[in-house]
Design brief:
The protein is an alpha+beta fold. The protein has one domain (20-159): Beta-Lactamase, CATH 3.30.450. Helices cover 25% and strands 28% of the residues. It has five helices and nine strands, in the order αββαββββββαβαα. It starts with 10 loop residues before the first helix and ends in an 11-residue tail after the last helix. 35% of the residues are buried. The mean pLDDT is 89.
């Protein structure tokens, strides 16, 4: 350590730090600086490891939420508020969602899972991001559609949240 710097941390301390923040929808460990902040109507704060999971907190809890996410291209703040399972407001109103998808062995398209989803302040930002990430597959949807898809999930689907392909409404 004296020669190359750094510090030693016990495995227990590292695990406690690494697992201290969990997604309020799928329960994955996440870093707050990379996650969407979710404020539940009763004042509880949690995180969504991706924009889709952040919206999923409304489906999991059955409560109104406020999602604070960033445009994946520019970092511009995007705030989505829900009311009774629907969109109450989106700021900026031009914001759109990217629904990352992968093709399953049977040829159908399913969710690509966490970290392949995102919000963008407008469709042009999304187009630029797609050009910069040619290996990402999916499609543009409205944030209202993203929320509606989460609200259609059954309790069994929510329980298996974000296993690739499982978070698709049936």
């Amino acid at each position: 350590m004296a020669r190359s710097g750094g510090s030693l941390v016990s495995l227990e301390a590292l695990a406690e730090l690494e697992l201290s923040h969990r997604c309020g929808f799928c329960d994955r460990a996440c870093y707050p600086q990379d996650a969407a902040k979710v404020i539940i109507a009763d004042g509880v704060h949690t995180f969504g490891c991706c924009s889709q999971c952040a919206l999923g907190v409304a489906a999991r809890t059955g409560k109104d939420i406020e999602v604070h996410e960033r445009d994946r291209l520019t970092g511009q703040p995007i705030i989505v508020k829900t009311f009774e399972g629907r969109i109450a407001s989106i700021d900026p109103p031009t914001a759109v969602a990217w629904f990352g998808q992968r093709q399953s062995p049977d040829g159908s398209w399913v969710s690509a899972g966490c970290f392949h989803q995102g919000f963008f302040a407008n469709a042009d930002n999304l187009r630029q991001w797609v050009q910069q990430h040619p290996y990402e597959t999916g499609r543009q949807i409205t944030i209202a559609q993203a929320l509606a898809d989460k609200m259609k999930l059954s309790p069994q689907q929510i329980k298996k949240a974000c296993k690739i392909g499982e978070c698709a409404p049936k």
